[in-house]
Amino acid sequence: MFYRFTAITFLFLAFASSALAADVKAHRVAIQVNQNDPQVMNLALNNASNVIEYYRAKKEDVDVDIVAYGPGLHMLRADSSPVKDRLKRLKEMAFPGKVQFSACNNTKQNMEKAEAREITIVPDATIVPSGVVQLMELQEQGWSYIRP
Q1: What is the DSSP track for 112-133?
Q2: Are 99 and 59 in contact (CB under 8 A)?
Q3: What pLDDT, on the 0 to 100 scale, is given for residue 92?
Q4: Is 84 among the domain residues?
């Protein structure tokens, strides 16, 4: 009898904890940067910082992906980023793996052709095949989308 009670109690706790876990919504936001404008870049970084701080205060996780393509790729270029220091600080501020900077490879290749030289992306960024496709796929996975 005691074993049956223990087993029922254990099952109840397992179902209750999984139900509570299902109620916790994953917070994920993709932020688009497609302009070579320091104000837009700083606004995107401000948005990301504010989101991280908000959920940190609530003791909840949030994932942020800042996707740069077109003229906005300058945000993630090692040679021309006006916000290089802020990128590093934001990456350090967030929990490991919770902030990603996605650099569009299509744009990078077009810039390299136009400038006839190789372009280096900041070390904290990840090169993705297409910035637009990255945004589409994140939205299809349920990520929120922000365009500052």
Answers
A1: HHHHTS--PBPTTEEEES-HHH
A2: no
A3: 85
A4: yes
**d(C-alpha 129, C-alpha 113), whole Å:** 16
Q: What is the CATH number of the domain that holds 46?
A: 3.40.1260.10
Q: Is residue 18 part of a domain?
A: no
Residue written as tokens 């504010």?
50
pTM above 0.85, yes or no: no
148's tokens: 């500052």
Best CA proximity match to 96, nearest among 51, 61, 46: 61
Q: Could you read off the pLDDT of 62-73 as tens digits, one per residue?
A: 999 999 999 999
Domain around 124: 26-146
Domain assignment of residue 30, yes or no: yes
- The torsion angles phi and psi of 35, rounded to 5 degrees, stand at -130, 140
12-65 pLDDT, tens digit per residue, is 545 544 444 445 678 999 999 999 999 999 999 999 999 999 998 999 999 999
Exposed (0-12), middle (13-18) or buried (19+): which is 26, by Cβ within 10 Å?
Answer: exposed
Mean pLDDT to the nearest integer, 107-133: 97
